[in-house]
From TrEMBL:
Keywords: Hydrolase. The keyword Hydrolase applies. Residues 36-161 form the HD/PDEase domain. It comes from the Bacteria. Gene3D superfamilies: Hypothetical protein af1432. This is 5'-nucleotidase YfbR. CDD domains: HDc (cd00077). It comes from Teredinibacter turnerae (strain ATCC 39867 / T7901). GO terms for molecular function: 5'-nucleotidase activity. Its EC number is 3.1.3.5.
């Protein structure tokens, strides 16, 4: 098969990456007043790094056999469909079984539309990253854990900034994290999460006065 057809530089053009780059303009937590705005692009990077270390912890400490690079890559793409759907606030998404089902159908269609933007010979490499139903169950669980950790850290950041708008969300997400019963998640919260409460100067000076997050008390 030839890939040099009727296009710029002799290759067919694809809008895929230009399109998904627009997730930088999609603001998360849209129903809440944010002291520190967060977009989907930066959130995706944070989830990818957390998911990666969860996989490493699983392999090193708990006898798992994760492909850590595959986990990180899938996490990096886990929210790209929001360039079409937008960031749907959790209270709306789960308001009723009907709304949850309807949103899932929209999400599935959005994922496939994004894959279809790719050159045909590249699609099979991206479907297991973009199409959520193609992501292995164990990888999905790690990404969900990382996603929830990122949400919890966001709540803590807002509370530290004096924004009580996130107090109830922090409590709810802390309970959700406990419900995961994942040792990798517990280890991250014990080892890495407390440092998120430190200032830059405290981090640089090696300050050992790390106050544990509420989940760890």
């Amino acid at each position: 098969m030839s890939y040099s057809n009727n296009a710029l530089g002799g290759f067919m053009q694809s809008h895929f990456f230009a399109y998904i780059s627009k997730i930088r303009w999609i603001v998360r937590w849209g129903l809440k007043r944010n002291a520190i705005p967060e977009n989907v692009m930066e959130h995706s990077w944070e989830v990818a790094t957390i998911a990666h270390v969860l996989a490493v912890i699983g392999n090193k400490r708990y006898g798992a056999d994760y492909d850590v690079n595959a986990v990180a890559t899938a996490a990096l793409y886990h929210d790209v469909s929001e360039v079409i759907t937008g960031d749907m606030p959790t209270p709306i998404k789960y308001h009723s079984a009907g709304m949850q089902k309807a949103f899932k159908e929209v999400e599935i269609q959005a994922e496939q539309e994004l894959v279809n933007l790719l050159p045909e010979d590249l699609r099979d490499a991206f479907e297991p990253l973009v199409v959520s139903s193609r992501v292995p169950a164990d990888v999905t669980k790690l990404i969900k854990g990382a996603d929830t950790i990122a949400a919890f850290l966001k709540c803590q950041e807002e509370l530290k900034a004096g924004n009580p708008e996130f107090a109830k969300a922090a409590e709810d997400i802390a309970m959700r994290l406990k419900g995961f019963a994942m040792p990798e998640v517990n280890d991250f919260l014990a080892i890495f999460a407390p440092s998120y409460k430190l200032t830059l100067d405290e981090l640089l000076n090696g300050n050992d006065k790390v106050r544990h997050l509420p989940l760890q008390q």
